[in-house]
Amino acid sequence: MENLINHQIRLAARPVGMPKRSDWAFTEEAVAQPGAGEVLVKVLYLSLDPAMRGWMNAGKSYIRPVEIGEVMRAGAVGHVIASGDAKFPVGAAVVGGFGVQEYACVNSSEVTLIDLRLAPFPVWLGALGMPGMTAYFGLLDVCQPKAGDTVLVSGAAGAVGSVVGQIAKIKGCRVIGIAGGADKCRYVVEELGFDAAIDYKAEDLKTALRQHAPKGVNVYFDNVGGATLDAALAYLARNARIGICGAISQYNATEGVVGPANYLSLLVNRARMEGFVVFDYAPRYGEAVAELAAWLKSGQLKTREDIVDGLETFPETLLKLFKGENLGKLVLRVAGE
Amino acid sequence: MENLINHQIRLAARPVGMPKRSDWAFTEEAVAQPGAGEVLVKVLYLSLDPAMRGWMNAGKSYIRPVEIGEVMRAGAVGHVIASGDAKFPVGAAVVGGFGVQEYACVNSSEVTLIDLRLAPFPVWLGALGMPGMTAYFGLLDVCQPKAGDTVLVSGAAGAVGSVVGQIAKIKGCRVIGIAGGADKCRYVVEELGFDAAIDYKAEDLKTALRQHAPKGVNVYFDNVGGATLDAALAYLARNARIGICGAISQYNATEGVVGPANYLSLLVNRARMEGFVVFDYAPRYGEAVAELAAWLKSGQLKTREDIVDGLETFPETLLKLFKGENLGKLVLRVAGE
User: Is the CB of B275 less than 8 angstroms away from the CB of A276?
Assistant: First the structure.
């Protein structure tokens, strides 16, 4: 191990707007040997998530910011290659917040074993990882869809939205996705079984919502914020529930977040808008993994990963999320399996 | 009755911004004799409410708009002076949506008897009327305060806010009011027993919230919207509940409603924002009246009415609400008791 070099990507500056290459520092250091209670993981795949943009900002949030000079926080999967904890033997497949680097030497309490018989590595960063947990608890716990409800989800072709829509279908809802571009719209309808998709880049959102949700939207699962949230607010059904999962349209805003001008629709429609943070559901992740894995096995849940190669591409690959260039879960392959 | 003249105020034009005198038409007509199932009411007091501004706008809302040429909708109390329904004998004290006029001949299904032993007429338009119902159900059902919670209420010296804060105190909460001007702030603290008041006209809201709610706000009951809602969002505690009762700061906006730019605080704090409409609670009004009346009797609940004389002053008196000139429930006296 002592001869292995760990290439890392650290936060060099707090970005203004879209993160630039100069906001990152590329470093390398010798790989450490794990002590007692520690585990050394060789990272195979990194999870790239919209939330990472928020972690780069200073200030109070649901999680502490990544500090300048710190290895960028990221979820990852890999193999244990040296271990100071018998529960994580060499060769074990694991998931954890290993960061944007090739090797992570971490306390074993931060590591979780994964079962590759249920799904291959990248899926443990998607449907069986944070995005899947986010979709599962955000939809079922926060939005409480009922059979027959009209469920609207933005970022529908993304890691979270694609799972949200499929769970809603499983629960007997009518599902409308919002995505950017014909390919994504075709994907969610033809491959994932959504009832309809709205291409926000080509269609007028309000006209499309009027057409696809003539009785209003009972549940809106919001990944994007901005004008899309405002349009959804304008088409709420009575007693609608909006789950605020994220606001990718606002994460790189340099002139302040745009608030939803139509928020008084909450009053008119006796509706609620509720935020949530997936980490709060950690004690129940097992329950979600079991159910999602069963749906994967039965074919009711489909996943797609958008895999890009090379740790060094991280700065540019991350931006695919904000440019809407990924289809499905965006994953960075750091090393071959 | 046939010789009585009914002076009425009708909506003449849909206002742009603040309603002007030319948006109203003053009409008179002979008082009708009630038929079977009808009741003729002599109006004594009219309720003036911020919500009336919304009723003057065209478009879908929680209630149909007042049409051009129609007598302006208003809650009112008065005496039955002729009756086609034995349940409402002549002389009975009643409340209902009698409109901005001196006499109302209405279907008896729209009339409710009131008990003047519990409180005098004007209180039946305030703490025991719609504002009281709004405060009771909006706070207890929608915001679900728990003993020890920090409860923030805007429009704190108004008809709804003053009751919200007092109920929250009864329930063991720490209560902070937001009001405009030193008199209102003194009133809610010294007379109503709020723990603190913030004068939004004289103080920086954020600084004051940081001072008065160092652990964050568990419940925010919003009557005003705008910058106040945004400030409250910035000081939410984990799992906070925001009840959207109204948005008086926005009702006369001519350039569109300003949305709450800090809405992502809902996500960070796992909080929810929920709208409600008091009419939904009509089946439970009796329950609220009984409890509010008991608190009035015990002295735990205090009320103040701001009574202005003369139907003809309606156009200007209504504006007191939007200028923040009323202290307590604004009532228009149409006739002496």
Answer: no
CB contact under 8 A, B261 and A257: yes
Residues whose CB falls within 8 Å of the CB of residue B88, separated by 6 or more in sequence, listed in order: B39, B80, B94, B108, B111, B113
The architecture that CATH gives domain B5-126+304-333 is: Alpha-Beta Complex (3.90)
Amino acid at B230: D
pLDDT of residue A2: 61
Measure CB to CB from residue A259 to each of B246, B259, B271 and give the nearest one. Answer: B259
Which CATH number is associated with domain A5-125+304-333? 3.90.180.10
Sign of CA dihedral A132, A134, A137, A142: negative
* CATH code linked to domain A130-279: 3.40.50.720
Q: Band of the pLDDT at A1, cuts 50, 70, 90?
A: low
Q: Where in chain A is the domain with CATH 3.40.50.720?
A: 130-279
Instruction: With CB atoms and an 8 Å threshold, state whether B273 touches A274.
Output: yes
pLDDT tens-digit profile of A191-237? Answer: 999 999 999 999 999 999 999 999 999 999 999 999 999 999 999 99
State yes or no: ipTM above 0.90. Answer: yes
Cβ pair B45, B333 in contact under 8 A: yes
What secondary structure, in 3-state letters, does B308-326 show?
EECHHHHHHHHHHHHHCCC
Residues sharing a CB contact under 8 Å with residue B280, sequence separation 6 or more, in sequence order: A270
CA-CA distance, B288 to B281, in Å (whole number)? 10
Q: Give the H/E segment covering residue B93.
A: strand B93-96
Nearest CA in chain A to B246: A267
Beta carbons within 8 Å of B214's beta carbon, 6+ residues apart: none
